[in-house]
């Protein structure tokens, strides 16, 4: 039972990561920076609850704002380039964030113990949930409340004028611009919203694993982030959730019996899936 | 003086970055796609070179290099058929994902075969020290530089002096027109991957030789460095990739001199951002009208 609850928590956190990439993908931009925003949110929330003693519910909005601010900062210069150049720029940003935390030492003494991020050793003892006696089930419900709220928000956005603008930019930039849509505005807004969601996701991730380190936020995580909406298709938010369940639940956990060979199969499956269904497993053709 | 010394070391090692950058840029020039698996092919080729040692323990270092060279070409062709050939040209995202999948696959195969342990790599001329004025140039780095320059020369000769090179350049300018003129586009594309794979294999072997050990952990930093070199040089520009490779090598060495090995890559990437903001086309941006 514990195993399935833990899996549900993991799926919830990865769903937030996938949704953050989903928003950005709606405008047709492929961002590998989501892992970077996720890392920023994780460290920000962890430092606030552990070192400043904030409650988690107060720390998460700050983590979210930090993610959004970083996304804006990346968005403006990165939007000078498009397509594959943007992929490279955002990949480089994610690596900068990872390397920054690799070099980031900032510890304070609390109750006689030094706590805080310590470079390559990572950030241990983010024990907000155990300290406040949350049960695993409560933590799971907490995570999924955020997933549900953000999915509802995005579902509503999709049906509003805002979502239409984002999709218009994603479908045809020239046509969108000619009807008076500000490309920079739409793209940076989508980036910032994606950064905010990734920040929340990272903040929750830090607290449920209790130990984060720079190696968690590598290119594999960045690839997974954009793989979820790509696999699930961009027609609505539920595709991303289905893709997370499919990848994390079936591929990663379901193939655990293969042991060492599972990692081999994982790369091969991505290659195979892209050869067979280039526009997503569940997505509409041409999405 | 130490500054000049580390810049010189950096330029010599930067030649391998230039080779990796050329691989990315050549594929981009021909297919307008990014081959994210390229650095993995390079490291994979270098590992295959080590097979020579396990078959014949007394094999000389040049045999290892030669095998790495050939294996890189084979791996390059495999990447073309696994990640590009059957995926429609119109979906750039699909090839991006498939090559990332290939990157993970090659990495995992290496980890599986070597049980995750780094392997020591044979070097040539590593006991030679050349004195040039006040500069001391390491013999193995000089070899790296010389072989890289020779490879670049061979590549430029191939591209600008042979019918195959003419066909490659034609496909990179106008694939449809090239096809109408009787160029076999698929063959040219596949050969581009073989050529870049050959370059990658030798680059991987040179990197292994100058670092002294080879580890699958090399692939990701190399991928990022290669992409940075490609962007700074200008996507699709071979002279740009060469110049940017040497520049990145020199600057990386200087950053390491000033800020230490753990921080140097941060500054290299900030350099990339500076280029994206002020000169998004790179040093030699593509000429107007070329798509």
Order of strands across the main sheet of chain A: 1-2
CATH architecture classification of the domain at 9-126 and 137-215 in chain B: Orthogonal Bundle
Overall pLDDT of chain B: 86
What is the H/E string of chain B? HHHHEEEHHHHEHHH
**Helix residue percentage of chain A:** over 70%
Q: Which chain pair shows the most residues in contact?
A: A-B, 43 and 47 residues
Instruction: Compute the number of structural domains of chain A.
Output: 1
The major pleated sheet of chain B works out as:
2 strands, antiparallel
CATH C-level class of the domain at 9-126 and 137-215 in chain B? Mainly Alpha
**SS field, number of helical segments of chain A:** 12
Kindly estimate the percentage of residues of chain A that lie in beta strands according to DSSP: under 5%
Helical residues, percent of chain B: over 70%
Radius of gyration of chain A: 19 Å
State Rg of chain B: 19 Å
Number of helices of chain B: 11
The total of beta strands of chain A comes to: 2
End-to-end CA span of chain A: 38 Å
Q: Write down the overall geometry of chain B.
A: globular
Global mean pLDDT of chain A: 86
CATH superfamily of the domain at 9-126 and 137-215 in chain B: ABC transporter involved in vitamin B12 uptake, BtuC
Extract low-pLDDT stretches of chain B.
Answer: none
List the helices and strands and how they pair.
The complex is a heterodimer of chains A (287) and B (291).
Chain A: H1 2-26, H2 34-51, H3 56-78, H4 84-102, E1 108-110, E2 113-115, H5 128-131, H6 136-158, H7 161-171, H8 173-178, H9 183-209, H10 219-232, H11 237-253, H12 261-276
Chain B: H1 2-31, H2 38-55, H3 61-83, H4 92-114, E1 119-120, E2 129-132, E3 135-138, H5 139-161, H6 163-173, H7 175-180, H8 185-211, E4 213-214, H9 219-233, H10 238-259, H11 264-278
Helix pairs in contact in B: 1-5, 1-8, 1-9, 1-10, 2-3, 2-4, 2-8, 2-9, 3-8, 5-6, 5-8, 6-8, 9-10, 9-11, 10-11
């Amino acid at each position: 039972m514990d195993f399935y609850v833990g899996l549900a928590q993991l799926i919830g956190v990865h769903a937030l990561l996938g949704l953050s990439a989903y928003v950005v993908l709606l405008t047709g931009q492929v961002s590998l920076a989501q892992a970077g925003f996720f890392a920023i949110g994780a460290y920000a929330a962890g430092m606030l609850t552990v070192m400043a003693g904030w409650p988690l519910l107060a720390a998460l909005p700050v983590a979210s704002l930090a993610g959004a601010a970083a996304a804006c900062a990346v968005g403006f210069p990165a939007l000078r380039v498009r397509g594959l150049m943007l992929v490279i720029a955002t990949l480089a940003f994610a690596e900068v964030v990872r390397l920054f935390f690799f070099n980031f030492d900032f510890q304070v003494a609390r109750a006689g113990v030094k706590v805080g991020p310590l470079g390559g050793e990572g950030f241990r003892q983010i024990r907000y949930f155990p300290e406040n006696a949350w049960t695993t089930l409560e933590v799971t419900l907490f995570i999924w409340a955020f997933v549900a709220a953000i999915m509802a928000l995005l579902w509503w956005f999709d049906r509003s004028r805002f979502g239409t603008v984002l999709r218009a930019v994603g479908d045809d930039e020239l046509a969108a611009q000619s009807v008076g849509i500000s490309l920079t505005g739409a793209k940076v807004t989508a980036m910032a919203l994606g950064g905010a969601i990734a920040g929340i996701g990272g903040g929750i991730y830090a607290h449920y694993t209790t130990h984060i380190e720079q190696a968690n936020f590598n290119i594999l995580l960045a690839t997974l982030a954009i793989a979820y909406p790509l696999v699930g298709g961009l027609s609505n938010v539920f595709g991303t959730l289905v893709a997370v369940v499919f990848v994390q639940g079936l591929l990663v956990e379901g193939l655990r019996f293969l042991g060492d060979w599972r990692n081999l199969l994982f790369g091969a499956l991505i290659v195979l899936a892209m050869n067979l269904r280039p526009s997503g497993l569940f997505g509409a053709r041409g999405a | 003086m130490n500054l000049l010394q580390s810049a010189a070391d950096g330029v010599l090692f930067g030649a391998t970055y230039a080779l990796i950058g050329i691989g990315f840029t050549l594929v981009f020039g021909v297919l307008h796609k990014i081959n994210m698996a390229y650095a993995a092919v390079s490291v994979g080729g270098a590992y295959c070179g080590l097979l020579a040692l396990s078959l014949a323990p007394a094999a000389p270092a040049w045999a290892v290099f030669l095998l790495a060279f050939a294996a890189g070409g084979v791996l390059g062709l495999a990447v073309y058929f696994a990640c590009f050939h059957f995926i429609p040209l119109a979906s750039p995202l699909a090839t991006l994902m498939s090559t990332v999948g290939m990157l993970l696959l090659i990495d995992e195969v290496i980890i599986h075969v070597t049980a995750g342990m780094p392997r020591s790599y044979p070097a040539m001329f590593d006991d030679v020290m050349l004195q040039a004025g006040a500069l001391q140039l390491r013999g193995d780095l000089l070899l790296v530089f010389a072989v890289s320059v020779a490879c670049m020369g061979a590549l430029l000769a191939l591209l600008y002096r042979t019918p195959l090179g003419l066909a490659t350049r034609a496909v990179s300018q106008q694939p449809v027109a090239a096809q109408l003129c009787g160029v076999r586009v698929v063959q040219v594309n596949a050969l581009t991957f073989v050529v870049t794979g050959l370059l990658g294999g030798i680059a991987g072997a040179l990197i292994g030789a100058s670092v002294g050990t080879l580890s699958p952990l090399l692939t990701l930093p190399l991928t990022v460095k290669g992409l940075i070199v490609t962007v700074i040089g200008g996507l699709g520009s071979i002279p740009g990739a060469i110049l940017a490779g040497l520049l990145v090598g020199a600057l990386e060495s200087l950053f390491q001199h000033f800020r230490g090995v753990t921080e140097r890559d941060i500054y290299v990437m900030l350099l990339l951002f500076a280029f994206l903001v002020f000169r998004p086309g790179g040093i030699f941006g593509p000429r107007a009208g070329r798509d």
